[in-house]
Amino acid sequence: xxxxxxxxxxxxxxxxxxxxxxxxxxxxxxxxxxxxxxxxxxxxxxxxxxxxxxxxxxxxxxxxxxxxxxxxxxxxxxxxxxxxxxxxxxxxxxxxxxxxxxxxxxxxxxxxxxxxxxxxxxxxxxxxxx
Length: 130
Hints:
The chain is of the alpha/beta class and 130 residues long. It has helices spanning 15-26, 57-63, 81-90, and strands at residues 9-12, 29-36, 39-47, 50-56, 73-76, 99-100, 105-111, 117-123.
């Protein structure tokens, strides 16, 4: 048996608010959404090859207990991390400064409205020497 895809499902307070953030900040498209009682309960989004699912906290808790958000980092590989960083800053998002890591990546960090840490990294042409 082989696993083909991993699509994280994040527990969120307000799916609509979360969708707005991911669409505006990171250009995700909504693939599917489920509404009940006038509220979005669950949604699936996609950007490039990356998919994420979001479920309202009460819906997600019925399936499994909540993970500690500070223990989770979603690591994305954009085509151009410098351009993404500039775009996020221009839109007013509180994105960290770009930094070069000892493992050869240029990275920045953004936290979404629900407290999930989103890290964006791109390999540098030549890794720094240690």
